[in-house]
Amino acid sequence: MRDRRGVSSVLGVVMILGITVMMVTSLMVIGVVALQASQSDSKLAQMENSMSQLSSQASLVALGQSSSYQFDLGDVGTDSVRVDEDAGSMLIEMNVSEEEDIIIYETDQLGALVFEHGDHEIAYQAGGVWARTGDDGGTMLSPPEFHYRDATLTLPIIVISGDDSTSGQVTGGFAQGDTTTEFPNVTEDLVNPVDNATVKISIQSEYHRGWYEYLEERSEGEINHEPDNQTVEMELTMPFEDGFSSAIAVRDRYDPTGEGGGPPDDTPGEGPNGVNESEIEEGVYYPSASQAIEDEINDCLDNVCDEFDESNDTFEGGTVYFTNESLELSDVEFVTDDGDIRVVIDGKLEGLGDVSVSGEHNVSIYTRDIGDMPGGGDSVNNAEGNDAVQFRLYVHSNVGDWDLGSGEDDPAFKGIIYAPSTDITIRGNFDFKGAIVANEITDKGSPATGIEFDPALEREDLEFEAEVDAIQYLHVTEIEIAIDFD
Q1: CA–CA distance, 281 with 283 (Å, rounded to integer)
Q2: CB proximity list for 401: less than 8 A, separation 6 or greater
Q3: Regions in the chain scoring below 70 on pLDDT
Q4: Are strands 89-95 and 101-107 parallel, antiparallel or unpaired?
Q5: Does the global pTM surpass 0.85?
Q6: 279 by DSSP, 3-state: which?
Q7: Which residues contact 1 (CB under 8 A, 6 or more apart)?
Q8: 3-state SS class at 278
Q9: How many Å apart are CA 176 and CA 25, to the nearest integer?
Q10: Are 301 and 291 in contact (CB under 8 A)?
């Protein structure tokens, strides 16, 4: 019995020692793993910070504020940093009609500067910094050079070139290469403002999820994400007005001084030219009438319209009149008892004066071009009891500048002037009631000028099916950045 107890005591000691060794070993293994994980996290955090600093300095080079920059990403040990000039692609298209897409810009080599640590990546691409683990599609750490606001897209596309890789202490430099303006491009007839077009941007990138989340949060538009193809597509859209609520609605600005200023203050009341400032709206977007005008012209060319005969002074309702020549509408009466009247001009409306409208329906003028009008003493739809709903003038976007009114007598106009792509200058003692829609209005009228909104328009919408102006101003530039390691 004494011998068995001695053996049991020895076995107990051995077991305790074994358990102790196992516990110490396990703690050591766990500690090593934890230390390695901590070191890995620290290295990734340090590289994220270094890449973000590099991004801000690279932007200075890309935007021309510095010609070159030397960088130091620190010691990455056995990990690697490489330039992959084949990483990513971008395509920018403009849809100008159902049948036509124009390629604004295309590259299959966006390029990227990539730090690799196991299955982790931190990359600088297109001006942004992205992180990726395995095939998770990545996240954004700092935003790319992509600016979309108030219907204006500014896109300096930074393209990275180089084919080197390195490890250990990573230092190097980058320098600006060629800079190419892709849009606007006068040679290719690609100009601002963009009119009745939709802009679509397609990005292929290993950091596609990061791109998708960024664009979804920061941009107005329809965004489609296809993870299997590592692709993000964005179609830019812009809310637009389709009714009337003010006497003056401009995309850009209203200048009541005629000297490049804006409204003198925000206090409702009579402006210097008789415009109540509560009836002025700036920064509002109306769709162009150009497509509606083209559609009307094409319908008439198919011989479905009556010829406009200038020798007549009375025109009956329920009819569409057409001319492909220059035309002056003066001393005419539109009788709308039998329905609406449309006048389609595939030429130039040279003048507009002493036009009367009677009956319960409306008159709409669609013109490809227009001259200065109305003249001194002329009156358009100004009969007692008429309202602005009864006369609408739609102007094509081909008309860049237009003088409204003259310095003679007191022309009067009651109706809608719809020219959202046109810069209008108001002259003389112009008396207007209704709504003027323009890109910009410079009011050089005298203090006797009176412009007021007609409340009858509050229940009116656009009579044509509007096509959304997806974007008004587009600025696309490709900037090459070459990266070399020391």
Answers
A1: 7
A2: 422, 423, 424, 425
A3: 1-15, 17-41, 96-98, 149-151, 195-196, 219-221, 237-240, 258-275, 374-377, 406-410, 446-449, 464-470
A4: antiparallel
A5: no
A6: helix
A7: none
A8: helix
A9: 55
A10: no
